[in-house]
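Budget justification note: compute hours in this period were largely spent on complex prediction jobs such as the one shown. Inputs:
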Amino acid sequence: MVIKAALVGLLYWLAMGRANYYFSFAFRKPVVLGVFIGLVFGDVRIGLLYGATIQLMYMGGIEAGGNIPSDQGLAACIAIPAAIINNLDPATAVVLAVPFGVLGVLINNVRRTINSFYNTKADQFVEKGEYDKLSKFSFLLPWLTNGVLYFVPVFVATLYGPAVVESFIDVIPEWLMNGLGNAGNMLPALGFALTLVVMGKKQYLPFFVLGFFLYAIMGFSMLTGAVLGICIALIVSLFKQHSEEGEQA
Amino acid sequence: MSTTEIEEKKTIVTKMDLLQAWWKWCLAVEVPVSFDRMQALAFGYSLSKILRKLYQDDPEELQEAMKRHISMFNTNCDWGSIIHGITISLEEQRALGNKDITPEVIQSLKIGLMGPMAGIGDSVDQGIVATIPLAIFVPMALEGSVIAAFIPAIIYLVWSYGWSWFLINKGYSLGKNSVLEILHSGKIKKVIDSASIVGLFMIGCLSASYVKVTTALTFTSSTSTVALQSILDGMLPKFLPFCVVMGMYLYITKKGPKYLRLIVYTMLIAIVLTFFHII
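Corresponding output:
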């Protein structure tokens, strides 16, 4: 069991440690993780079934600005082993998965906070001209820190099994769980607000407002949004050109 | 003009350097992400070897360059690669003695491009490349097909590695041949302006799509019960999510980048409001 728990912990590290982002992004899908967790527990078929069922909840989870709205990897890595051991039906596995998806956002936030420390360290080394150390603080140390952050919770949860997982969920009162869920739904706003600040130009804020409420009313696909946005930008530059030509004439 | 033509023909950066920068970017991009500087270190890590090669005779320039490339950066991982390409070619031009390319030009290009690349990239990658194959193949996986479970992942991998490698090369050759020309003609300001507009518009769409808050408050009069949310929806749909984004925006512009505090506040407020059944 220790080995199985360690393997699931490693899977989660691969999925959320983000070394080779494209790979980890593809790997963290519950439907993919389900196959590997199934392999660890000797039943690929049932792992796939749980994984695919959990995946249905996370079909459109965009991580805009790198903010994960919900950690589907943690949801899968904790719910699937518990479901396999307890022989739960897939729907129950999904209920189990949701709160852990929210908790995963917390782990991500802790990770980013720790990384601020590595940022400061890297500044100091650049100041001293020791550029060799940059790679250590840009990749190796943050990645190993991820390892601890991501491996430990999953290892413990799988090892002490569904009993702990269940009692953990029992201990957290419903209002707190819902509150965390609501917070998880609000937090993507930070990523967007941050991008607004970075893009900087206050006089362009109306375009943000326009995009927001057009989407709120019509709910088109993001590609449609991109087409609309490009058209608006082109129209604006057309007007600018005209007014500049007008000034010259 | 003739001097720049001669300079443009000289190159220091090889295909191998580009490959390494690309690989390091793919490897590290999301690993050192922090709230305050986002992908800054990954960008610097990706470019560090090339910068040291370019400015090997000028330690002061090198340090300046290093500093400007570990400043705040955040974009979409594969679409953003074009920024690396352009930045590398600009730094190369600068190292070759073209002082028209000031640090400000390089910085403003980076910052001007990262938002639009993120807006377009996130929506195409995650809205289309990662999502539509899932919608097609997960039902097949539910029926027990292991291969179907992997197909969406494979599609995403091929797309993102291929597209980012293409874009870093494209950015490098674009930068080398036309960025100077564009700079002189003032086109770049137009491009950045247009890109900012598209980016802000897309952030609006994404915010409306992913920020979710609804109120559970109801008013009870003698005859009926009215939900506040339905009144709000009638006035201005998604008004509350809009307030959340704008509130955070104002907080950051007024109080500075104190993200952790903002997150803790958001969580506390959400939990308290939930406790009192307001949201």
